[in-house]
Structures are given as C-alpha cells and as structure tokens.
C-alpha cells in the first residue's frame, strides 16, 4: 500500500501533537510507516493520546514541553539525541490559537500579543534551530511549518494570530534558503478553518463565511490537511522547498 510506504522508516518530530491537527498529523505519519516523537505542553492529553497509539502497536513516544521556554526545547533535543540521534522530519504545529481572537486591533492586549508571538513564531524558530543538527544527519531532512490561510486573506479581529502566521510564511522562505545546502527542505502549509478542539470557540458566522466562500463548500476536517503534510515529509517532495501550500477547499487561491 503506497500510503503505508510513504514514510516507511522515517523518524518524525511533531509539536502540538496532543490534539487537533497535530494529533491528526501524528496518526497519519504513524500509519504511513514513520516513528513519531510527540511534543506538547498538554501533559494529560499527550500521555493519553500517546499511550492509546502505543496500544495499537504504533511507534509513538512523547515528551512534555512548553515551547515558549528555550530550556524545554533543549530537553526535546536531548531526548532526540538519546533515542534516535537523527531526525528525518519536523512538523511545527504547536501554536496558541484558543482565546486570541474577537478583539479589534485598537483594543488588543499587548501581553497577549507577546504570548502569541513567543509561542507561534519564536517557538517555531527555536524548535527548528534545535532540530537542524539532527536533520543534517538525515539524507533528506524535511521541515513543515503550519501557517494559516488567515495570513493570506487577512482575517479581522485576529490580529496577533494572523501576524504570527504571516511570520511563519516569511520564516519558511528564509529557512529554506539557509538550510538548502544541507539538503533540508522547508515548506509551510496553510490550513483553513478546520473542525478541531481549538476552533470550537470560533463563532458560527465565521464557520459559515468559510464554508460559503470555498470552492468545495463544506466544513474542513483534519484529515483534509494531513495528506499534504505527508507529501511534504516524503521523498516525493525532495525538490520542493520555500513553498506555501494553502489547504482550504479553495477559500484562498495561491
């Protein structure tokens, strides 16, 4: 089965893996033949999900880490060194999304802005920086940064999140330039509004806006996104780097 062989033998680190898209990426990568280290701050969710996957015979391990803390990222690197010594792929999915919208730019809390930028932008940079030595030891390292189509169409009353995802797009291009000499590809994936735990708070009218504005007019599910992530992690994407792929049913065309 081609999907099973797609990531056969690959070692993948996935942040934000305890729930939502991060968990769906984890399961998809495992089912495609990879071994996955799950990273998240949500200890109870992470432990429960990892142990459930292990009970199915899937090679998932986990480490609890707050990616706003450089020392926590150092511990992830130590875990990778001890367990694997190299990494084939990294998905940077961890992000602060819940409770960061609904306020216009004139009234946004500067402390919340800083928190969003620290986790979503700085955390992505530092996590990638920590994994580069291990990605270099792979024949073809892969980095997939999870952005958002909010940065492509300019979602209102979501300023910090939208700005942070715009930064992911820009960082992805810079990373691709710097890491290309090591045969490491760096791409971003921009999902639309997806039905996961983090979007449960999003008002119904925003969901309707997305559904009605898509070329494919239905709600977006996590599994709609995971196939593209697997492609970018795989050998099929060996000459694709510095690119952003919107996966949103045609709400935004690239």
TrEMBL record:
Give yes or no: UniProt keyword Oxidoreductase: yes
InterPro entries from the entry? NAD(P)-bd_dom_sf, Sc_DH/Rdtase_CS, SDR_fam
In Gene Ontology terms, what is one molecular function of this protein? Answer: oxidoreductase activity, acting on the CH-OH group of donors, NAD or NADP as acceptor
Q: Tell me the domain of life.
A: Bacteria
Q: Which UniProt keywords apply?
A: Oxidoreductase
Oxidoreductase is among the record's keywords: yes
Q: According to its UniProt record, which protein family does this protein belong to?
A: Belongs to the short-chain dehydrogenases/reductases (SDR) family.
- PANTHER family cross-referenced by the UniProt entry: 3-OXOACYL-[ACYL-CARRIER-PROTEIN] REDUCTASE FABG, SHORT-CHAIN DEHYDROGENASES/REDUCTASES FAMILY MEMBER
**Protein's recorded name:** Short-chain dehydrogenase
Source species: Ignatzschineria indica
């Amino acid at each position: 089965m081609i999907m099973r062989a797609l990531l056969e033998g690959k070692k993948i680190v996935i942040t934000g893996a305890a729930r939502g898209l991060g968990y769906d990426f984890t399961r998809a990568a495992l089912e495609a033949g990879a071994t996955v280290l799950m990273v998240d701050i949500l200890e109870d969710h992470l432990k429960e999900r990892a142990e459930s996957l292990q009970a199915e015979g899937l090679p998932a391990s986990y480490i609890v880490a707050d990616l706003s803390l450089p020392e926590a990222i150092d511990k992830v690197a130590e875990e990778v060194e001890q367990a694997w010594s190299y990494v084939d792929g990294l998905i940077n999915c961890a992000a602060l999304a819940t409770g960061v919208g609904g306020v216009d730019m004139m009234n946004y809390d500067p402390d919340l802005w800083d928190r969003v930028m620290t986790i979503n932008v700085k955390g992505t940079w530092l996590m990638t920086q920590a994994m580069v030595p291990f990605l270099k030891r792979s024949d073809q390292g892969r980095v997939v940064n999870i952005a958002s189509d909010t940065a492509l169409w300019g979602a209102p009353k979501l300023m910090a999140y939208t700005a942070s995802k715009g930064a992911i797009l820009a960082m992805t291009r810079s990373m691709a330039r710097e890491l290309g000499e090591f045969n490491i590809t760096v791409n971003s994936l921009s999902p639309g509004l997806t039905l996961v735990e983090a979007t449960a708070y999003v008002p119904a009218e925003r969901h309707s806006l997305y559904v009605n504005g898509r070329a494919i007019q239905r709600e977006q599910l996590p599994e709609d996104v995971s196939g593209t992530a697997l492609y970018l992690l795989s050998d099929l994407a060996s000459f694709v780097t510095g690119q952003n792929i919107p996966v949103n049913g045609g709400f935004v065309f690239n």
